[in-house]
Structure formats: structure tokens, C-alpha cells
Amino acid sequence: MSHKTEVFESYSRYYDLLYQDKDYVAEVGHIDKLLQMHGVTSGNILELGSGTGKHGRLLAELGYCVHGIERSAEMVAKATEGNGFTTQVGDICTVQLGRTFDAALSLFHVVSYQINNTAVFDMFARASEHVKKNGLFIFDVWYSPAVYEQRPVVRIKRITQNKTEVTRIAEPLICCNENRVDVTYTIFVRDTMTNLVETFTEVHPMRHFSLPEIDMLANTNGFERVSAQEFMTEAMPSEKTWGVCFVLRKK
Description:
Blueprint: E1 2-4, H1 15-18, H2 24-37, E2 44-48, H3 54-61, E3 65-70, H4 73-78, E4 85-89, E5 101-106, H5 117-130, E6 131-143, H6 144-150, E7 155-161, E8 164-175, E9 180-191, E10 197-209, H7 211-220, E11 223-230, E12 243-250
Parallel strand pairs: 1-10, 2-3, 2-5, 3-4, 5-6, 6-10
Antiparallel strand pairs: 6-12, 7-8, 8-9, 9-10, 11-12
């Protein structure tokens, strides 16, 4: 069976399996370091695009109180609430919670999924509305100089767990005039007991950003940039830096 789906409609079913090698503990340790370095040592955090809640739960274990907003109802259903972590289905571009937080986070390139100017500005506006004065907005994006220097290539990933084998083919198409890469994911899911295979395709459009773009978005929405480093390594952004992590402070 083969079909085409909306972004994350079917992909979300295999999300945790495909990213089981992702080091969430190390990533949360890095985020905790950034938060503390810039003055947020505890308190309430809003996670925009919280997925299945892995970052949020780990941050809650460190003593933060985290509330996640996630568009995919299937991912929210997989998230385990409790002990300082809650989550709800919502649109990060329109959400209105009526409260403010010490910091907002948007991890694993969620900002890059906002592919048009309206969505990007709306997301930054919602972050600004929900962050206290002097609070932080921390997020990572695909970095334009690296996209054009390195150029994305076709990648294949294969994961087996229990009776399920998942093969993912990622085929990128660079849309240079839109600062966007359209990644077509073709997923083959094989039941190793019956050899039955389900196939589906999703196109994930990903926007990439430059430093001047992020500074413009920050200033327009009441933030100032206090840090821009390669995610995890803390290296200065360059044409070798695919993912850049930004720390903005609310003015």
C-alpha cells in the first residue's frame, strides 16, 4: 500500500523509532546550560513544537516546569505528562495561553518548518507574547551559508525494532529563491513476520535562515540576540555549521 500524506500525518507514528539514536539527554543538558548561563536557573518554560515530549520531560526532571504546544495530535497522544511536564494540541503560530513564561524553547528545527514570512513572524510574535521581560527564546534552525556550501544530499536510514523494519529515503530539492529545501521522505514499513510492506511519502519543506534574518525577526518582536552558536558544539556559525542555536532575550 502506498500513499502521500500531509507533514507528520503518518511520519509521527514512527518518529521516536527513526530518532531513537538522538541523544536527548545531551541536548537537554546543553539547553539547561544555555538557560542557566543567561539567567534562567528555574521556573516555567514554554516549548513550541514539543513533539512526543522527550525534551520537555527531561527538562522537567531537572526542575523546570514545562508546557508543550504541538500541532500533531498523534504526537501529543504519545507524550507522557506529569512531574512538571504538560502538553496540548495547538498551533504555535496562533496559540494564546494568557500567561507568560521565563523562557520559550523551539528545538529540532521547528522554526525551520515555518516556511513563509507570515508563519515565521507569527511564531516569533507568539514567543514574544508568552515570554516575560528579560526572559529567553532559544531555538535552532538550518543555517543558510551551510545549506548553500554543503548542499543537502539523498540519505537512507534503516531501523529495526521488534517486528518492524523502517526504511526512510530522504530526497532534498533546493528552492534557492525561497530559502527553502523540500525534503521528500519515502518510508517503507515492513512487518518482518509477514513481509507485508506499507509505503508512504511526505514532503517536509524546511526553511533556512541567515544571521541578519534572525536579527530582524528578533528586533521586530521585542528580542535581542545574545548568542548564536552551532548546536551542541558551541562553535561560531560558518558555512560548515548546518544547525545554529540562537538565544534571544526579551527587551
